[in-house]
Every structure is written in structure tokens, then in C-alpha cells.
Design a protein that fits this description.
Layout (H helix, E strand, L loop, with lengths): L1 E12 L6 E9 L1 E6 L13 E10 L5 H4 L3 E8 L6 E8 L8 H11 L2 E8 L1
């Protein structure tokens, strides 16, 4: 999946408004995600959306800019049952500071940053 992150201290000018805007760059992430069976779809909800949770694989530790805000990424999801690939948008649910930050960082180093969010395709 490809997130977009800001380059700290670098700005450019918006051609339409002339206002300064922060420079952004693509940020590639590989993740191991699986369906979250504890969340059941609501009647009338989008049938092309799935709740996913898992861990970042590459890189193992994600930047805070991605973790602590609702981040969106262009992503490819491979259905484990059918092998079908779906291209769409992954929306990462923001995480809040743990009351045990040392434990969270140690786990992230070992298995990757915990991720949870929705994947939607058309």
C-alpha cells in the first residue's frame, strides 16, 4: 500500500491559490492483514468493504505521521479464499498513545506496527 507523508520543513506553492503547501512523498508499506471477524457488516453497508487488522511487515515500524492520524493509502488486497486481487483504498484507523509505550515499541520491533482499518474497492 502507498501512503502519502509530509516532508518536514519543505513547502511549495499551490498553483491555484498561491498559498504555501507542504511537500509530500509516497511511502510504501507491505502489511500482513486479515479480516476482523469481530466486526459484522451492518445491513445496507458497502459490500465492497472489509475490516482488516494485522501488522506492518516492511517497514516494521511505521512513522508516527501514519500511525496517529486517519491515514489513507492506495492498496491492493488479495482475497485469501479466492486469490482475487482488488485495488482500492485502505483507511487506517488512528492509534492513540499506549499507556505502555515501551511494550508497544518492543512489540513493533519484533512483529511490526499493529494496524487496523478498512479496505474499500469498486
Amino acid at each position: 500500500m502507498t501512503f502519502t507523508i509530509s516532508v518536514e520543513g519543505q513547502f511549495t506553492t499551490d498553483p491555484e491559490t498561491g498559498n504555501p503547501v507542504q511537500v509530500t512523498v509516497p511511502y510504501q508499506v507491505e502489511a500482513w492483514l486479515q479480516g476482523n471477524n469481530s466486526v459484522k457488516p451492518e445491513p445496507g453497508s458497502n459490500p465492497n468493504m472489509v475490516m482488516l487488522q494485522g501488522y506492518s511487515v516492511k517497514p516494521r515500524i511505521l512513522p508516527n505521521e501514519i500511525i496517529y492520524k486517519q491515514s489513507e493509502a492506495v492498496a491492493v488486497y488479495i482475497d485469501p479464499l479466492t486469490g482475487n486481487q482488488h485495488q482500492g483504498k485502505f483507511t487506517l484507523k488512528p492509534k492513540f498513545d499506549s499507556n505502555r509505550p515501551r511494550v508497544a515499541k518492543a512489540l513493533a520491533r519484533g512483529i511490526g506496527t499493529q494496524m487496523e482499518g478498512t479496505f474499500e474497492w469498486s
